[in-house]
Amino acid sequence: MGANLREAIIRGADLRYANLRSANLRQADLEGANLEGAQLIKAKVESGKLRMAILYKAVLDQADFRSAQLSRSVLIGARGTGALFTKADLSEIHAPKSQFHQAQFNDATLESANLVAADLSGSNFTHANLTHANIQEANLQGATLAGADLTGARLDQANLRRAMLHGANLALASGLTQAQLDTACIDEQTKLPAGLSRPAPCAAVKK
């Protein structure tokens, strides 16, 4: 079992390279804490408070951040395969070149998030708020963005191959090209930017 830090108040703590594998951090207050390089594999951080926390190159594989508050946190180069961020507040996070394969961001708030060149392949952004997010050069191959709001999002050179965009709002997204759109899966409810045509329905893709 990992450390039990449930509801602990450790604001601004220096936890660089700490081993917090499987730790219980539910509802803990880690606002502004330095978790650079920390190991948070399978950590339980539901409803944790991590505003402005530094998670530079932290390892978050299979960690549970459901309903956590991570606004304005730094996740440059962080890794979180299979991590759960359902209903989390990730607004204004700084996470370029982060890697979140098969992660769950459904119903999460990622408004104005910096996800430039992030690897988000296979992740679930169903009904996520990605308004004004910077997703340039990000890898969204095989990701699900059904019902997501991408109003004002920047999608220049993002990889949307086999990305599921059913019902997504792309009407005011910028940087999106017809070539990108033609590789994605959209439906009649997908809202497209002016000047782009709705491609043929995407055939079912075998995993």
Describe the 3D structure.
- The chain has 207 residues and is low in regular secondary structure.
- Helix content is 3%, strand content 0%.
- It contains 1 helix and no strands.
- It is elongated, with a radius of gyration of 17 Å.
Largest sheet: none
Morphology: elongated
* Overall pLDDT level: 95
Number of helices: 1
Which properties best describe this structure?
little secondary structure; 207 residues
Summarize the structure.
The chain is low in regular secondary structure. It has 1 helix and no strands.
Topology overview:
Layout: H1 178-183
